[in-house]
Amino acid sequence: MDTDNHAQGFTGELLKSDLPAMLLGQPATGVDGEFLWPIAPRALLTLYRTSAEHGRAINVKAQSAFGGGLIGEQVERIATLCDRGPADLFVGLGMDLETFGNAFLQVIRNSRKGIAGLRRLPAITMTRFREGFLQRVPLPNGDTRKITFAPDEILHLRVPCPAGGRYALPEWIGVEGMLELARAAIAYNAKFFSNNAIPEHAVIFKGAAPSQSQKEAIAGFFRHEYKGFENSHRTLLLHVSEETTVEFKRLTADVKDADFLKLIDAARDRIPVAHGVPPRMLGIVTGGQLGGGGEVSGQLFSFELLTLRPKRRGVLDQLRPMLAELGLRPGDTDDGLGSDQVAFRPLDLTPPGDDAGQLPDLVNAGILTAEEARLFLPGFEAGGTIAKSATGSGPAGRDPLDALAALLARV
User: Nearest to residue 396, comparing CAs of 384, 381, 378, 408?
Assistant: First the structure.
């Protein structure tokens, strides 16, 4: 500020915070009074469609965490409330959690306010507002139908988020910038090839100004007869005077395909880190990896222990109010489930060789018949015969199982 009294004067700098409104505790509201998402859900859906690795990571996490469904003595009480079973319901909710960071479970109530059904409401259609929840359903004619829900009709599931607020940011938000760059690179490349794989040019006339008809001819050529592969090698014919020369000057630098590929690869390498999914689970093999079964088993164990198990427990904790109404409690498969407890089925991390090694004991104990045990072995046919290898010299399958196969054949 300016002042005549320099002894009392001071200078200052005004800094404008770039923190989103959610972090400041005053989220923006929409025209219907709903609280807007910090990031538009359609933008998050666009990123899901942009990257194969990103979309695959979302699917892998949702299927691995909830695809096994629920387990427990009274799990049928929940299954009867779902249209297509608990696995289908919670995989859909898991997809929303991984894509948007938020998921919405509708608790359908009867006239006595009891739970009569459970249904997933797509997160992309949902917002929160002061009186509960609002859903916008697009109609075929282009209109939108608005449906309101009371607070006790919706169970809002969220992933852990340090930002707080009414909505959670997705866990992979740290790689958002790289996904945007990869999307921009793909879009730029697509535009590049739709423009006949040549950057734009400037047309420079020297000696005389072009006539209006010449301008229209040049503009029409570049707009309609120059773009696309079907118009490749077209020739532009201009009639100019002897004193006039025409120069076509490239405005943009040469495009290097390697730069785009490096950018896309950089985004691909960061996606497993952001999602907590081992690269092997996404089909990504990097240099230096051995590629053996032990490596894959180790990655799968870490995936289950560090990513999937906390995710299941977090969702179960958020389901506590609904489970309590049904007389149920969240359980832990490691500690054993009580008669009133339910839990999501974990991944089976037992190596195939260990399962096969237990078969002789199961047969001798009378738990399995020899015919049933054979069905667990690769290389066996349903009729009880050993499938021969391509050379016909011996049974197909892995060598460590040969001895076990022979043992079962004698039982």
Answer: 378
Torsion of the alpha carbons at 169, 172, 176 and 179, rounded to the nearest 10:
-140
Report pLDDT digits (tens) over 142-154: 899 999 999 999 9
User: How many other CB atoms sit within 10 Å of the CB of residue 95?
Assistant: 21
Separation of CA 396 from chain center: 38
Q: Rounded to an integer, what distance in angstroms lies between the CA atom of residue 346 and that of residue 312? A: 9
Comparing C-alpha atoms, which of 346, 342, 355, 363 is closest to residue 400? 355
78: exposed, middle or buried (C-beta count within 10 Å: 0-12, 13-18, 19+)?
A: buried
pTM metric for this prediction: 0.67
More confident residue, 390 or 55: 55
Which residues are CB-neighbours of 71 under 8 A, at least 6 positions away?
333, 337, 342, 343, 344, 345
**Three state DSSP letters for 340-356:** CEEEECCCCCCCHHHHH
Nearest to 325 by CA among 99, 81, 85: 81
CA distance 269 to 49: 17
Q: What is the pLDDT of residues 79-120, one digit of tens each?
A: 999 999 999 999 999 999 999 999 999 999 999 999 999 999
DSSP summary character for residue 282:
G
Question: How far apart, in Å, are the Cα atoms of 149 and each of 101, 105, 122, 165, 289?
Answer: 20, 11, 14, 20, 51
Lowest mean pLDDT among 107-116, 225-234, 255-264: 225-234
Q: Which residues make Cβ contacts (< 8 Å) with residue 254, sequence separation at least 6?
A: 199
- DSSP class per residue in 184-219: HHHHHHHHHHHTTT---EEEEEESSPPPHHHHHHHH
Rg (CA), the chain: 31
Beta partners for 395?
Answer: 388
DSSP 118-165: EEEE-GGGEEEETTEEEEEEE-TTS-EEEEEE-GGGEEEEE---TT-S
